[in-house]
Amino acid sequence: MTTTTPSRGRRRAPTRIERAAGRAAALQRPRVILALLLLLALTCALLLDGYLRAEVGGDERVRTGASSGKVPQRILDGGPILTFQGGRATTISVPDKTIALTFDDGPDPTWTPRVLKILKENNVPGTFFLVGSMVSRHPGIVRTMVEQGNEVGIHTFTHVDLSYQSDGRIKREMEQTQLALAGAAGITTTLFRAPYSSETDAIDNYSWPVYQKLGKDGYTSVFVDTDSDDWKRPGASKIVQWATPKSTKGAAVLFHDAGGNRAQTIAALPQYIKKMRAKGYTFTTISGVMEQQRASTRPSGAPAGVVPRGQDTPVAASSLQAAHHKATGTTLYEGKALILAVAVAEWTVPTLSVGLVVVGVAVMGRFAMMLVLARRHHKQRNRRRFGWGPPVTRPVSVIVPAYNEKECIANTLVSLARSTHPIEIVVVDDGSTDGTADIAESLGLPEVRVVRQPNAGKPAALNNGARHARYDLVVMMDGDTVFEPDTVRHLVQPFADPEVGAVAGNAKVGNRTTLIGAWQHIEYVMGFNLDRRMYDLLRCMPTIPGAIGAFRREAVLQAGGMSEDTLAEDTDITIALHRAGWRVVYQEHARAWTEAPGSLRQLWSQRYRWSYGTMQALWKHRGSLTDRGPSGRFGRVGMPLVVLFQIVTPVFAPLIDVFTLYSMIFVDLRAALLAWLAVLGVQLLCAAYAFRLDREKYRYLLMMPLQQLAYRQMMYLVLIHSCITALTGGRLRWQKLKRTGEVGASAGVR
């Protein structure tokens, strides 16, 4: 065993990454906060959109008939307009030969404009009881409605039966609808119609307290005395018939401009207006009815304050002013903010839906491509007659960079000493402070040489090891990794092909008894190894794992050695070899056992570095997109696949889970759950096939559903965090993970 110690001298200048370490540390917290804020904004947009899309269904009555006791008989027998002037409940009836057209459940982008067009053409006003969520989604229709001279009332924000709600919920339903009206048309209103209400004789002990409460707040509740029942879609003639009051009585007539297919309503409405005018009826609003009632009780000679609106539609200006109030101050600004927030949500959800389709196609396409190419790779490399050429038997240099690896270094070196292939072991101690070099020397293994250097980082340690290597084939590994006896022999056989410049081995998780280890085990087998089989056949392998990789020494030197420009020196050197014209292959039988991070914090740190380093390497080698010939194959094939499958798709993949949750809450729980289970089933199929190829035990797949719910979400957040860091120009430093030495020398024990 030989020990090489560098001469004492001036400490090297720090690299760019090291110089930026302090600044990077200070910048990480704002970036995490930014990522969380973006996630929060997306969540809020989806929740708002889901809340707004509590679509209006049919107006099936929840209760029929009145309960005796609380409701005064004069109210039950009274007219359709209920007021609480002076604190006393009073009803108002529609005068004879007068029709107050009312419309519920709008505005609807399809039907409401058509209703407004009919009313305008016939010079007839209407009173529209609007659902606040629909108002916030279609403010332009409401604005047109008010400008045309119609009046509006509140039909709650989510079309909920207020009789079963708390006082707080009732207050929110009313206030939110008022804000929507303020933002849409700059007004508020005092008119109210309860969802699922009908005539006054249907007021019961559940709903009466609600009307009393709203009456104290200044609201006028409007009921129906003639119902067209257009929601039943009985045909236009039936709708006209049912909406016609008996004899010459006046009526508050109910139609619908939303909540379903209203084609029959659109067909019946002009016929109805024509019929009623022929019978001598005039049309007015609820406010017009109230003004006529006041006019009939006004002392003789008092001013009426009535302005004409067409020849048969008198509407009192004072009444309209009483129903509609101009929104000002906080109400107006909050209303506009609500409309803006809804517009953003309305834009966000369709955009994300398109992204979901793209992501879904990409994910399924990737699964299909991996399965097909992995199967072909396995058959090709495992057939009896396959060979790379004459067996490679010449000695190999194994380089082990080590920084504070006292828990693992002994197991690593002992496993290498059992190699069935002739090797020399070069341990490069990168300024360890825990006695790693001393432990390596104390083992007394004749194949081991220890090279000490001041702490300079893993790339520098690997380059130093390559300079001290005696042989032209070098194997690079991590100081916490354990090799099987045949690993090196399998790993170097592809070098029989002179086109092969590097070989990626099969990295395995050794401490898979832990939850994180089991999750990473699934990821390594399914994701990394299936990917490597696919990329091998496509001749665009993006990464040789740092835990196990073999290189031609001349190829590494030709590419400039391990670069310190990125945090993913393994990806960097792999792409550089491609661009130098070398072929990079995957050797599935060369297995190495590595230790997964022991905590979520360490896992985050590791994957954050991997993700960010990969982005650095791709950006550094963006010139490969224009390379020609064999050296440009990575740019033409590998670069697009890596960007699509390792960056773009994972960044947007959370849409699948977000929309699943969205659908479970706001759409259809059963259908959404079945869709999620279907996607999980496809992933389980891929994972099972990957486990079969690697001859792994299937019991670990029982952890996969939990992995999808927890581990995968964390990986998404890590990647998003890395993207934000890259976009904001941040830098990271190499972060040493704490090791326990759980992966022992008995490599391959499952």
How would you describe this structure to a colleague?
The chain is α/β, with parallel strands linked by helices and 750 residues long. It folds into two domains: 398 residues, Alpha-Beta Complex (Spore Coat Polysaccharide Biosynthesis Protein SpsA, Chain A); 237 residues, Alpha-Beta Barrel (TIM Barrel). Strands 1-18-17-16-19-22-21-23-20 form a nine-stranded mixed β-sheet, with helices on both faces. The chain is elongated and about 115 Å long. The two termini are 33 Å apart. The relative contact order is 0.10. The N terminus and C terminus are likely disordered.
Shape: elongated
Radius of gyration: 38 Å
Sheet-strand content, in percent, reads: 5-15%
Strand pairing plus helix content: what structural class?
alpha/beta
Outline the biggest β-sheet: 9 strands, mixed
CATH superfamily of the largest domain: Spore Coat Polysaccharide Biosynthesis Protein SpsA, Chain A
Number of strands: 23
- Overall pLDDT confidence: 84
Total count of helical runs of at least 4 residues = 25
CATH class group of the largest domain:
Alpha Beta
Keywords: Glycosyltransferase, Membrane, Transferase, Transmembrane, Transmembrane helix
InterPro entries: Glyco_hydro/deAcase_b/a-brl (IPR011330), NODB_dom (IPR002509), Nucleotide-diphossugar_trans (IPR029044)
Domain NodB homology: 97-284
Transmembrane segments: 352-374, 641-665, 671-693
